[in-house]
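quick q for whoever's on today - can somebody do inverse folding on this one?? i tried earlier but teh output was garbage lol. tokens:
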């Protein structure tokens, strides 16, 4: 049986969207056995999709060859059970190259990262993402953040572009997102997808859901899938009591800990994976490892989160 198109598979996810870390060995090179185990564990835990070699997966630190190898490993480990979406970024020429490498590795779609360094106007951004979308047959989700911020009109143009199926927001401007959702709904009715892509997106997902953004990435799923699954189920069933309990007792303290260090949105997550027993190595520079005290606090938070689950509804 041919799998449903990516947009259909992502529109009503059965579980959290999984953004695995990329495992590195003691010599700093990709540790594929550990990476495969990490991906496999996430799929078996209930992930609805694997977003390989994206922000949490240190896309910025991977060579094109490493990127293709890791995407292919993720595709092989999922074995079609869930879709694999790969990152693509930098300038237009390199973004196109990464897109084609992802397609060659068997990915089901692309998450298009912001262009490197430059702050471009809306016309240039639109041209950039259209070139990425036309480079392969893979459907594309565009990532809004940092130097890639769109007007509602530009997002409507993206939604009209063949191959672009959604927008992931890492900016956090809910007023802008509401206007984007409204503009696309009015001008390009259909199944355009929206994702909350803020770090630890669970903290803001109740608000995002209210403006029409039902999907979100879950970095917590990397190291505490039970907590992420419980929150996802609470959202899906309208159980705001459980969602608030997890927000107050786990997610808010985790976000406050994450704010203690630059790059902790990646390195603290990677430390969490190691705490759960899988040695995925350290982050590559320019990121750095969290301090020992912060790792101890993370371990305590994970225990607290599991204690909250044990309390029941």
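ok took a stab at it. sequence:
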């Amino acid at each position: 049986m041919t799998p449903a198109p990516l947009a259909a598979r992502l529109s009503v996810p059965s579980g959290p969207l999984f953004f695995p870390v990329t495992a590195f060995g003691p010599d700093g090179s990709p540790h594929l056995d550990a990476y495969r185990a990490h991906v496999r564990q996430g799929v078996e835990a209930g992930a609805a999709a694997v977003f390989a070699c994206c922000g949490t997966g240190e896309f910025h630190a991977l060579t094109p060859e490493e990127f293709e190898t890791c995407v292919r490993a993720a595709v092989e480990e999922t074995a079609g059970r869930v879709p694999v979406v790969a990152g693509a970024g930098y300038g237009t020429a390199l973004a196109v190259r990464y897109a084609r490498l992802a397609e060659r590795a068997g990915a089901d779609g692309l998450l298009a990262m912001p262009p490197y360094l430059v702050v471009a106007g809306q016309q240039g951004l639109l041209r950039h993402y259209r070139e990425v979308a036309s480079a392969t047959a893979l459907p594309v989700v565009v990532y809004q953040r940092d130097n890639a911020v769109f007007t509602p009109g530009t997002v409507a143009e993206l939604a009209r572009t063949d191959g672009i199926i959604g927008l992931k927001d890492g900016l956090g401007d809910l007023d802008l997102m509401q206007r984007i959702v409204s503009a696309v709904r009015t001008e390009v009715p259909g199944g355009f997808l929206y994702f909350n892509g803020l770090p630890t997106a669970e903290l803001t997902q109740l608000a995002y859901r209210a403006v029409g953004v039902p999907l979100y990435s879950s970095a917590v799923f990397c190291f505490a899938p039970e907590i992420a699954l419980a929150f996802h189920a609470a959202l899906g069933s309208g159980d705001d009591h459980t969602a608030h309990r997890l927000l107050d007792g786990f997610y808010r303290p985790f976000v406050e800990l994450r704010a203690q260090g630059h790059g902790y949105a990646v390195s603290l997550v990677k430390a969490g994976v190691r705490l759960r027993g899988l040695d995925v190595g350290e982050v590559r520079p320019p990121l750095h490892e969290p301090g020992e005290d912060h790792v101890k606090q993370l371990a305590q938070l994970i225990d607290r989160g599991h204690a909250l689950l044990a309390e029941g509804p």
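fwiw Residues 130 and 161 are 7 Å apart (CA to CA). also The beta strands are 17-18, 49-52, 84-88, 109-112, 140-144, 164-169, 193-196, 215-218. so keep that in mind when u check it
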